[in-house]
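Page 42, continued from yesterday. The earlier attempt failed because a stray header line got pasted into the input along with the sequence. Redoing it now with the clean sequence only.
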Amino acid sequence: MKWKTINNGLRKTILWSIGGLLLFTSIGFVETRQQSVQINKIDIRIHDQFEHFFLDEKDILLLMTDGGMEPVMGAMYQDTDWKLLEERVETHKFIRYAEVSKDLQGNLRVDAWQAQPIARIVRPDGVDAYISAEGIILPVLDRYTARTVLISGGLAAELMKEDMSKDHFPELLELLQYLDENEFWRAQIAQMSIDQNQDITMYPQVSKQLIEFGQPTDIETKLNKLKIFYQRILPVKGWNAYSRVNLKYQDQIICE
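This time it went through. Structure tokens are written below.
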């Protein structure tokens, strides 16, 4: 009985060893075969464009090939630096992330995720720039203009200096994200003038009232008050009854 148990254990050990050897041999065969594959097709997919066409497949291919200096089509897998290809694509300011994958037939797939502008900084004495949903400062491109809320005022130049983050105007970024994610407010607010103290005046798309929003705090509460102004006050008093609405004070809507 004891010998039978030992033999069974030995048999299992041998079977596991053979299985492991076959697995490693198979993996090695696949890797060797992949190295000898030649790239014969490149499939480029740009995600998260949402009708914002800041770049296309040709732009991605130019980035991958270092401006056409290092062609990818026809290259062997063993001679291709996959990480370098991803890094080249990600050098474009409008690309958040890139991923390159391949198969045994020589098909190369490139997935790139585009940054989404949610605001545009406008300055009379300098270049404009976009702010992405992540707070990244993006350049304005000639080929396409995104329809976003405009930002002007004394803070505009300061915003251009570095990306917005938890340490750099986090509350203002939260306000921009809130406006962009809400279909009603995205269509309603055309421009924001922001002074050096982050005091905000909003300019609506349709009505003529200036909206004194104040600091980018209590965002939802203030916008709920503004919605009350649009839905309950203006229909009764008339759209031209007031030139200014103040949302700065708690539990109050001041109309003048």
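Notes: Residues 2-6, 20-30 have pLDDT under 50 and may be disordered.
Reminder to self: strip header lines before submitting.
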